Amino acid sequence: MSEAPKDRFALFGALRLANAGAGLVFGLLQTAILARTLPLDSFAHYVLAGALGNALWAFDLGIARVLFTRLRPAWLDGNVPASLARQGWAVVLFYAALVLVGAVVLFAVALLRAIPDALGLAAFFAFTALNLPWFALRTLSVAVDRFVQIELAEASRRALQIGAMLLPLLGVSVGTASLIGLAAWALPVAPTLLRLRAIGAVAPGPVVGGMVQTWRSHRADLARAGSYALAELAIYNAPYAVASWLFGVGPATIVADLLAKTLRGATVLSASLCEAAVPAQTRAWHARDRAALIRTTQRVVATVALPTMCLSLLLILAGNELYAKLVADAVAMPAMLGALAGLLVIANGVQTISNHLLIHTAAFLAVSRAAVALVVCFAAGAALAFLFQVEVVRFWQGYAAIYAAGALVYATLAIQRARQLPS
Predict the structure, then answer these.
(1) Keywords assigned by UniProt (predicted)?
(2) In this structure, are residues 140 and 196 in contact, taking their beta carbons and an 8 Å threshold?
(3) pLDDT tens digit string along 130-140?
(4) Cα–Cα distance for residue pair 423/419, rounded to 1 Å
(5) Residue 401 CB contacts under 8 Å (≥ 6 apart), including other chains
(6) Across all residues in the chain, what is the average pLDDT?
(7) Which of left, alpha, beta for 289 (phi over 0: left; psi -120 to 50: alpha)?
(8) Are 355 and 367 a contacting pair, CB within 8 Å?
(9) pTM
(10) Contact present, 202 and 85 (Cβ < 8 Å)
(11) Rounded to 5 degrees, what are φ and ψ at 43?
């Protein structure tokens, strides 16, 4: 029925890490090519279209993860209910329909406002936003032990899309390149969907009816997963607004951006390694095998610890200098910023390891409560910072302290989750 994930931890981890790295490179390459091939106004329009596409990707709000926690045990038991398979199909197609509707709306707005290359902008939006249904496909594929196949498909689509984005350097318009990149999505998506259908992981059915059934069947966990996802978005993005509110738009905003990008980069690194252990962790959880779950999680900790500690040490020793060079010394870096960034990277690694275990074992209530409590703590900290007019360094020290405390809470919850299994 399924592959043996324990034997493929290294392969899955290497593929996941390579694809995550390729994603970061693709983002930088895309921005560089747009900047070099478009006039400033068009460049800004394409950046906005891409940002809207990325924002749509956040719409999932944990739905795919909730379906994972239902599909995974059913697959391991060898009995995937037809109703659950139809729900997976409905979610993927509903997400694809959202992308289509968004592209049509953007195309219409661009035409009404006489913005040049409306079709290219709509294609670029869809090209970016299709990560939403692809994320659902990836999650469902891992649930049925097709993790190596999905990473190979991911690698192929990255290669095709990087090739498409290089075309403007050969004289092809960005709009045409976006259309080609959009068409390239069919090559990994169609075979993946057909493969999942062939093994019974998804099954055709009415999209609207399937989405209604998904909500009715899992409404409690969907609400919890959604609140967790929204809280995490706030935790990662609120510093932009809060720092700008407290200290004005300018240097404080740039420092917030540097820290946010550091955390996102660390999250990509840690999450890619954590995801390699999800098949084995969830198999152990389903078998109620505490020893196997602890052994697999310890392997994840050891794998994540090395790059995390190296990055943290680099930031502690030379973070201020590196950040100053990144912004061409345009902004004076607050004292201890590098040390705080190093602490945040370690806390982020702890949190990512813990959250992957909690979420993939359906501990949605625990993570949602913890995330909402953290948001409340951050809000209280921001209010105190405003009330006492703290200096910028004190503000970031408080942010780092709350973030680190949150990581310890998540780690405690993960340990408690493992202890629920019989010894």
Answers:
(1) Membrane, Transmembrane, Transmembrane helix
(2) yes
(3) 989 999 999 99
(4) 8
(5) none
(6) 88
(7) beta
(8) yes
(9) 0.87
(10) yes
(11) -60, -45
